Amino acid sequence: MRRYFALIQLWFIKALEYRAELVVWAILTLLNTVILLAIWISVFRGQTSVNGYQVGQIMQYFLLVTVINGVTASHFEGWRSQEVREGKIDHYLTKPISYPLQVLLADIGNRLFYLTLILPITFLVYYVFSLSFNLGTVAFTPLVIAQFIFLLGVGYLIEFSCAMIAVLLSFWFEGAEGLEHFKWITISLFSGFMIPLEFMPGWLRSAVDILPLKYMYAIPIQVIQQRVTLRITDFMYIFFFLAVIFFFQRWLWQKATAKYTSSG
Amino acid sequence: MSEAPIISIQNLKKYFKVYRKKPGLLGSIQSLWSREYEEVKAVDDVSFEIYPGEIVGFIGQNGAGKTTTLKVLSGLLYPTSGEVSVLGFNPWDRKPDFQRQFALVMGQKNQLWWDLPAMESFLLNKAIYEVPDAEFDKTLDKLVELLDVKDIINVQVRKLSLGQRMKCELIAALLHSPKVLFLDEPTIGLDVVMQKVLRDFIKAYNQEFKATIILTSHYMGDVKELCKRAIVIDHGQKIFDGDLQDIIDQFARNKILSLIMNDKINQKQLEKYGQLKEFEYPKATLLVPRAKAAKIAGQLLTDFSVADVNIEEPTIDAIIRELFLSQKKVH
Ligand SMILES: Nc1ncnc2c1ncn2[C@@H]1O[C@H](COP(=O)(O)OP(=O)(O)O)[C@@H](O)[C@H]1O
Ligand SMILES: [Mg+2]
C-alpha cells in the first residue's frame, strides 16, 4: 500500500511540470461554468423557481458540476494510446506493478494535482456568486458527505474505465483514443452534466433513469441538495455496473497483452 | 559447467504478422477491405543456455532478431513457440517475483521522465520495486560514483547529453539490484570515450554484483572487451555460440588502420602496407592482418609524416558476413 501512495505522490510531482497546461484547462473549465451560470440566470429571469429549482440552487448545481468534473474527469486516452502505438510502454510492462494499475495510480496523482488548482478557484467563484445570489445553504451531515464522496469515487472509476478501455482498444485499432469524444458526449448527455434531470425532456429522462451515468453528476448533486438519499438498489446497481466494466477491462487487458508487439 | 543455467531458451520462435500496404491512395483504399499480411520470422528456432555470472555478447546485423529475443526474455513479447525460462520463471507470466530480479535497458527507448531530473525517476523505481531507504541510498551512491554523475542527477533529463542520459538510464534500471540484466545496444550513438566509460561500468557491475548479463551491441569493441562468450544470430537463426576469441581469430583476421597524413602521398605508396579500403587525402583506411597491425602502424609512422593513427576492430557486420559466408561453404 505504501508504494501506491509513493507512486501517486511522484505523479503528483510530475503533474507540477505540466502546470501551465493544467492552469489553462482549469481556466477554460471555469469560463465554461460562468457562461453556464449566466445562461441559467437569464432562464430564471422573472421567475422564482422552475421545475423545483430556485435560481440559487441551479447555480449551486453547476458549481458542483465543476467540482465533480475536477475530481472525476480523467482524460489520458490521447497520450497513453500514442505510447501504446509507439511501443513506449515496455518499461511499464517489465515492472512488478501491472500496467493498468500504474496508469490508475498515475492518473490519481494527476487528478489530485488538478484538484488543488480547481477547488480554490471554484470556491472563489462560489463566494463571488453567493454575494448576489442565495445559493442555498447545504447541511453537510456525515451521511450526506459520505454518500457524496462515495459517488465521487464511482464517477471517477467510470471515467477512468472509459479512458482505460479506449487505451486498451488502441492495442488493436489506430485512433481508438477518438472514443474520448464519444465518452464525452455520452456522459454530457446522460449524467446530468449539462442539465439537471428535472429539466430533461421525457425520453431523455427515461434513458437517464435506466443508465448508471446519473450516479456521476445528477445523483451526487441531489444528495448534496438533499433531494434524494441512496437506497440499497442504487448500491446494487452501482456495484454491478462497476464489476461489469472492471471485468471487461481485465478481459481486454489479457487479450491486449498477448497482442502487444512492442514496436520500435 | 556444473551449475544450472539461469536463462534457457529452447527452439524459440517469434513471428510477426506485418501488413503490407501498396503505396499511394489507391493502396490505402484497397487496404480498407483486403489486407495482405506477411510473416516476419524475427526469431526462428533459437536455443541457448546461459549460466549465472556470465556476460554473453549477443551479436548480429540489423534486423537479425536480437532485440526481439531480449523482449521475449523480458516477458514483453509472447513467443510464437518454444520454451523460455529465466530465473526459473516463464517471463511471459510477468510474475512480480520475476520482475523484481531482472532489468531491461534499451539504448533506443528510455524510461526516464523527460521533463524532470533523473532523480525523480529513480524515486519512482524505488517505490515500484519497494527498495528500502537504506539500500536505495547505498546502491544509488555506489552507482553514481561508478558512473560519475553526481552533478547531473538533479538536472532535467532533456537537458542531458545522450551519454549522460544513458548513464542515468542504467542507474534507473539497476536500483533494485537485478540479478539478470538485458542490455540492448547500451552504447549506441555514443562517442568512443563514453562507450569506454559504460563498458568499464558494465564490467565492474558484473564483477561486483555477480550479475548475469546479455549484451547486444553493434560495436565489436564492446563485445570484445566484455564478453568471453558470444552468440551470433543472423536472420533469426543462431549461427555461432562459443568463445568470442574463436570468431575473432577465424573471421576477424584483419584490423582497421585509420591514418591522417600530414604530407601528400600517392595511393601506390600506401598499398604496399595492406589492403587499402579508402583513400581521400588526408585520410586513409587500411586493412591489415591482426597480428601485424601494431608493427605496420609503427612502420607507417617512421616512413611518413602521420598526424594521427588509430587501430580499430573490424565492424561486427563485416565479421558476421565472413562467418556467414564460411558457413555457407560448409553446407
Ligand atoms: N513489432 C514488430 N512488428 C513487426 N516486425 C517486427 C517487430 N519488431 C521487429 N520486427 C522485425 O523482426 C526482425 C528482427 O528485429 P529485431 O529483433 O529488432 O532485430 P535486431 O535487434 O537484431 O536489429 C526485423 O526484420 C524487424 O523488422
Ligand atoms: Mg535491435
Protein model, in words:
The complex is a heterodimer of chains A (264) and B (331). In chain A, strands 1-2 form a two-stranded antiparallel sheet. In chain A, strand 1 and strand 2 (53-54) form a beta hairpin. Chain A is 72% helix and 2% strand. With 264 residues, chain A is mainly alpha-helical. The two termini of chain A are 34 Å apart. Chain B has 331 residues and is an alpha/beta fold. Chain B has 2 domains: 7-249, P-loop containing nucleotide triphosphate hydrolases (Rossmann fold); 253-312, YebC, transcriptional regulation domain (Alpha-Beta Plaits). Chain B contains 12 helices and 13 strands. Chain B has helices at 24-33, 66-73, 96-99, 118-128, 133-147, 162-174, 192-209, 220-226, 244-251, 267-271, 293-303, 316-330, and strands at residues 7-20, 36-50, 55-59, 81-86, 102-106, 180-184, 212-216, 229-234, 237-243, 254-261, 275-280, 283-289, 306-312. In chain B, strands 5-6-7-3-8-9 form a 6-stranded mixed beta sheet, with helices on both faces. Chain B has a 4-stranded antiparallel beta sheet with strand order 11-12-10-13. Chain B has a 3-stranded antiparallel beta sheet with strand order 2-1-4. In chain B, strand 8 (229-234) and strand 9 (237-243) form a beta hairpin. Chain B is globular. Chain B starts with 6 loop residues before the first strand and ends with a helix. Chains A and B meet through helix 1 and helix 5 of A and helix 3, strand 5 and helix 4 of B. Bound molecules: adenosine-5'-diphosphate (ADP) and magnesium ion. Adenosine-5'-diphosphate sits between chains B (16, 18, 40, 42, 60, 62-68) and A (261-263).
What is the strand and helix layout of this fold?
The complex is a heterodimer of chains A (264) and B (331).
Chain A: H1 2-17, H2 19-43, E1 49-50, E2 53-54, H3 55-72, H4 77-85, H5 90-93, H6 99-132, H7 142-169, H8 179-190, H9 202-210, H10 218-224, H11 232-259
Antiparallel strand pairs in A: 1-2
Chain B: E1 7-20, H1 24-33, E2 36-50, E3 55-59, H2 66-73, E4 81-86, H3 96-99, E5 102-106, H4 118-128, H5 133-147, H6 162-174, E6 180-184, H7 192-209, E7 212-216, H8 220-226, E8 229-234, E9 237-243, H9 244-251, E10 254-261, H10 267-271, E11 275-280, E12 283-289, H11 293-303, E13 306-312, H12 316-330
Parallel strand pairs in B: 3-7, 3-8, 5-6, 6-7
Antiparallel strand pairs in B: 1-2, 1-4, 8-9, 10-12, 10-13, 11-12
